[in-house]
DNA sequence: TACGTTTATATCGTGTGCGATATTAATGAC
DNA sequence: GTCATTAATATCGCACACGATATAAACGTA
C-alpha cells in the first residue's frame, strides 16, 4: 500500500509525474541505444529522421513544430545528419529565409530498419499493445495540456 | 479515427511511445521552468533536491541509484547545488571513497516551496488526480521494465 | 606487506536542449 | 524606394546526460 501524505507534505520523487517522465525518458533512450549505435545514430537524430520519413522535404521550422523543439536544437542535429549523408538542406526559391530538409537515399534507406527496432522496444516496455496505445494517448494529451499553459 | 498501418509500415513519430515520453518530458520541463527560475534552480537540480528532501545525508552513489542517473551527471549537479549553498558534500570517515550529501538550511528551506509548485503542475497537466496517479504507476512500471532489459 | 582487483567518485569529450542574440530575407508604412 | 519591423534560421553560452577514462581508497591473496 502506498504511503499517505497530508496535503502540505511534499511528494516523494518517485510519486511525482515529472520524475516518472524524466526517468522513463532516460530509460527509453538507453533501450534504443544499442539499436541506434549500430546505425551510427543518436536518439534525437533517430526521432528527427522518423518525422522526415513520414513527411519529407519540409522546412526547418515545420520540423521544429512537429517535434516541439527549438531551432537551436534542431539545426545542429540536421548538420550532423547532413554530415553523415542522411539529409540535404536546400534554401527556398521564393523565400530564401526558409531551408527545406530532404532525405537522401541513405536517409530513406534507414526507414527499413525502424519496424524491427520499434517491435523490440515495444517488447521491452512489457506493456501489451492495446494498453501501450492508450498510454501514448494519455501521455500525449498531458503533453498537449502542458504546452497550452505558457 | 486513427490511421491504420500494415505490420511492415513504420509508425508516425506521434504514434511512438518514445516520442510521447520525449516530448512530454520536454513539455514538463518547460512547465516547471518559471517556478524553478524564480528559485534559481534548473529542472534536474530540483529533482535532485526532491530526492534529498526525502532522504538526506546519503552517498552520491545512493543518490544515483535513486534517480537512475550516472555519477558523471550527478556530480556536476551537486557541485552547482553546493556552489549555491543548498548542499554540502562530506567524505565518509570509515570509507573515504564515499561522499555523503547533506542539505544545508537553505536547501531544506526550499522544500516548503515544493507543494505549491506541484499543485500548479498537476493542474497544468489537465489530468485528474486519480488518473494521474495511475499514469505515474503505468509509466514507472514501463520504465522499470525497460531498465531490466540491458 | 606487497600488489592486483574491485569500488566510489570525479573528469573529459560529444551531443543534445534552450534562451538570448545575430544574421539575412521578406514585409509594411510612408 | 527607404527604413523600421517582422520572420526564418543560425550561433553562442550554459547545463545536462552518458560512455570512457582517471583517481584514490578499500580489499583480497599470496
What report would you give on this structure?
The structure is a homodimer of 150-residue chains. With 150 residues, chain A is mainly alpha-helical. Chain A is built from seven helices and three strands, in the order ααβααββααα. The first copy, chain A, has helices at 17-37, 43-54, 60-67, 71-83, 105-109, 114-125, 129-149; strands spanning 58-59, 87-91, 99-103. A three-stranded antiparallel sheet of chain A has the order 1-3-2. In chain A, β2 and β3 (99-103) form a beta hairpin. The longest helix of chain A has 21 residues, at 17-37. The first copy, chain A, starts with 16 loop residues before the first helix and ends with a helix. Chains A and B meet through α1, α2, α6 and α7 of A and α1, α2, α6 and α7 of B. The structure holds a DNA duplex (30 and 30 nucleotides).
